[in-house]
Design goal:
It is built from 18 helices and seven strands. It is of the alpha+beta class and 375 residues long. A five-stranded mixed β-sheet has the order 1-2-5-4-3.
């Protein structure tokens, strides 16, 4: 894991190379290293780091595997990027404003290279009132609804009626997952960045603060870097930071742009009830990748004793080498979500949503775990 972190960390190349060579002084379980890199979606960063610092130290079989993985990743990234640009042209023809985020936009914004950040689908955000039109564009392009299952079945009018219900009333639905079988592309069409039971506030602020990103010969609008950092933190917290790549994204953003508008970012996080999630993400990036804490938030981070207790199980899960996803309905995962939420109303909404989904015995397990958690 030290070797993997050294390869994935941002910063000066020589400093990174020195850390990698120091790690290679010890015996390396190359099979485990490759498994962890694949699980945490950082194979390209591992490959680049080893190639830069000590290519002669890598066994021939591992070099071949890395080359194969890189070839597949690059081809997939180019394929998905082409599809994204074609879809955005279709949306533009219909005057539908769409914000692409994650995927090729994130790879370009944070790494400057599509090949360094693997992605397997395309994420698009539209406004509530544009969901049906955007869905119509995707269906006309040969996409089929996969999830939610209740929407995927039935004739087109029934599908549209069910989508309307989800957009206006559902506490859990925030996206449609669609598949293009001929081109083998998965698209997630979002009208919210997160479900209401995790983040109930309006996502309108994401539309009011945009940045331009060059992708190929096109200039696309996407989240501002401040909003991207906010999203990465709340998204990572939703999944209990089970992938190293999510923290790596944060580290690269913080390293490249220490001049973010921190006063605005922290004020918005407080207003949205997500400051603890924001601070936890920054704390993890600092702890694992030695990214300097931004000065405007250094004092704020130092005064939060809750961050260490929240971060410890996350880092233990990443660093123990298990590389296993944890069930998000596990009592420990539920306790984490309750602790990372700041407002009682948000905790209650989250627990009520889960209580409707599982057996009564599981609710009792959650209650015991949460009771012992320091809230």
């Amino acid at each position: 894991m030290r070797l993997l972190l050294s390869c994935a960390r941002p910063g000066p190349v020589e400093q990174q190379a020195a850390c990698i060579r120091a790690c290679l002084q010890d015996a390396v379980d190359w099979s485990l290293l490759c498994h962890l890199a694949q699980h945490h979606h950082v194979v390209p960063l591992l490959s680049r780091g080893l190639q830069t610092a000590a290519p002669q130290a890598v066994p021939a079989a591992v070099r071949r595997w890395l080359d194969e993985q890189m070839h597949v990743s690059i081809q997939s990234s180019l394929h998905l990027t082409r599809e994204l640009l074609q879809l955005l042209a279709r949306f533009q023809q219909r005057n539908i404003q769409v914000l692409p985020y994650k995927g090729p936009v994130l790879a370009t914004s944070l790494y400057g290279d599509l090949s360094l950040r693997p992605f397997g689908d395309l994420d698009l955000l539209v406004r509530d009132q544009d969901v049906l039109q955007a869905l119509d564009v995707l269906l006309a392009a040969g996409y089929q609804i996969l999830r939610p299952a209740a929407v995927a079945t039935g004739e087109r009018p029934l599908q549209m009626k069910r989508v309307c219900h989800l957009v206006s009333r559902s506490s859990w639905a925030y996206q449609l997952v669609l598949w293009q079988p001929a081109r083998q592309v998965l698209v997630e069409l979002h009208w919210r960045p997160l479900p209401r039971y995790v983040f109930p506030a309006s996502p309108q602020f994401l539309w009011e603060d945009l940045d331009a990103v060059s992708l190929g010969n096109e200039v696309l609008l996407t989240f501002s870097l401040e909003n991207l950092l906010w999203f990465l933190c709340v998204h990572g917290a939703k999944h209990r930071w089970q992938r190293l790549s999510w923290i790596c994204d944060l580290a690269h953003l913080l390293e490249a742009r220490p001049d973010l508008d921190w006063s605005k970012l922290m004020a918005r996080a407080r207003a949205l009830g997500t400051q603890r999630r924001l601070c936890l993400g920054i704390f993890l990036a600092h702890s694992l990748f030695q990214v300097p804490l931004p000065r405007p938030v250094e004092h704020q981070m130092g005064s939060r004793a809750d961050l260490g207790s929240l971060a410890r199980p996350v880092m233990a899960g990443l660093l123990d080498g298990a590389g296993q996803d944890e069930d998000l309905l596990h009592p420990a995962a539920v306790a984490f979500q309750v602790r990372v939420m700041e407002r009682l109303a948000d905790r209650g909404r989250y627990l009520l949503h889960l209580a409707r989904k599982v057996a009564p015995g599981a609710v009792a397990d959650w209650a015991r775990t949460v009771r012992h958690a320091s809230l």
